Amino acid sequence: MSYSVSAPVKSAYDALVARGALTPDPAQVEAVEALDRVLADLLAARPRGLRALFEKPQPVRGLYLYGDVGRGKTMLMDLFFAAVPFAEKRRLHFHEFMDDVHSGVSAFRKSARGRNEDADPIEAVVRPMLKSGLRVLCLDEFHVHDITNAMLLDRLFGKLFAGGVTLVATSNVTPDGLYKDGLNRQLFLPFIALLKERTLVAALPSQQDYRRLKFSGQQVYAFGSGPEVDAVMDRLWLRITGGVPGAPGSVESIGRQIPVPLMAMGAARFGFADLCEKPLGTRDFVRIAHQFDSLVLDNVPQMDRTRSDAAKRFILLIDSLYDRGVKLAASFAVPLEHLGADDKTAFEFQRTLSRLTEMQSEEYLGKGLRDAVPLEEPASS
């Protein structure tokens, strides 16, 4: 098999190894080859020429990749998603996807059509996805806790698969471990069977926690300003990304795009002004915390009453990162105890300072990401 042409995921992986950004890992290589097989099947099943106007793509079996935290699942998904050469693809955190589904269900139920007794809200949510031509759905951290999600997944994915959508998912647990010990779990078992039928289930049994290696022994905060501090942050960024400089990107939130100045290898780099001096809120910060496992934040200023709005956003940002377990590297103009806040945010800011102190500890840096929670209460369906 010639990986240079017919295996673009393997080619991208090999390029990272050659650059020194990754250490060769046999378990990762097996997962890469499985991803390339999915991509090859997708391309083979895609109608070409005039046939594309009249024929639907043939269904393609996807991949469900599971393994412990920090083994590189999200990085491999990044490589796969970038290698898919057509636009009819979507990449989301699983809980973001389900949040969108519940929002769609809620909106449909409030509509005139949704008040009909025979109305099917799942059909109403799936139809626009299929109409857009969606072919590949990539979902990170597939994990089912909520009974509402558990009860609708079989119908939801049954319709997506019937419409020709291929699922590529990452998870910390096997399909049989989803919704384990959940209420009425026997009603969830048909979805597990469907998932096994429509995806190849593959383990990523790597022995190395790469996420922990990024931060081992590192001082993740720098204080002051000027070229020396900038150089410290540049070195931290390259360590976190394995030497990959990164490129601009974006995070989708509530139908709009939040610009990301630099992103690479599951990490993002922002300036304080990019996040805290823009009209962003909790939902936006949760989206960012879902998408990245590490965040570098440059030029956090001393905050007083002239920066009250920015201080409030900074509090929300740190809360979102902390709750998710995202690793933070940051440069501050002054020591943490002098960051300050006005009277309106003084109490909340003390909690933020406590969390910032914890977030630089070896214990925090050594832990994996925490399970995500839905962004809003799910609507019944």
UniProtKB/TrEMBL annotation:
Gene3D superfamilies: P-loop containing nucleotide triphosphate hydrolases. SUPFAM superfamilies: P-loop containing nucleoside triphosphate hydrolases. Pfam families: AFG1_ATPase. One of its GO terms (molecular function) is ATP binding. GO terms for cellular component: cytoplasm. The keyword Membrane does not apply. It comes from the Bacteria. This is ATPase. It comes from Devosia chinhatensis.
